[in-house]
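Tutorial handout. Part one gives the primary structure; part two gives the three-dimensional structure as tokens.
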Amino acid sequence: MSEAAPEKEEDLAEGTLLSHLVELRSRLFKVFLSVFVIFIVLLPFSQKIFNFAAEPLINVVPGGQLIALSPVSPLTATIMLAFYISLFLAMPVILYQAWAFVAPGLYKKEKHFAFPLLASSILLFYAGIAFAYFVVFPLVFGFVSSFTPDKVEYQPDMAEYVSFIMMVVLVFGLAFETPIATVLTVWTGLTTPEKLGKARPYVFLGAFIVGMLLTPPDVISQTILAIPVYLLYELGIIMSRIFRTKSDEKPIADI
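Part two.
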């Protein structure tokens, strides 16, 4: 009888502190370069980008016009929006550079699961942004504008609008990363899908608390954030079970 040979220990890439710092500098430079190039490309279209971003609010503002309270708001608001959009568009490069930096320290099995998680995190981040723009903004602005008294002219400031939508977009983009965070907690051994399933009531309540803290003070935006977060939590439990099942599959023993 022949016993299965034990799985060979995999050698991981090692390096000195200086080599890691040089590698980190190289990755950060590529991130900065990607953001800068995208920003330069978007800069001539900054006004069109602002008009597109402001459309959910303009549709509910009487006259379809925003205001600029500061003399430099037309310049700073459009440039800042173009910069934020550059960061969002460069997110695949940013996440890939982060993954490439830690990849040499991962085992092959970990790399096999890390890349699908990386791709999923990018898609979920963009899904969160799209959800905020096409679903959240029209509902929130329509809800807020309906409370405007007859004697008040509702015309928000363009700079304040850019700050507001970027905060909401970032919150929803990160909130849609819930499945990835759930899978990582199971992957690292901090918990199990069974324990996550038992925590459903607490997560449901916590989702509304997070929505209350991170969104504007209205019921609609809080609910719109809480419900997707809870559904994504359920998706994360399903994904964690799939990844755990695949990782538990034993490799074929060497003869």
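Part three, for discussion. The mean pLDDT is 80. The two ends are 11 Å apart (CA to CA).
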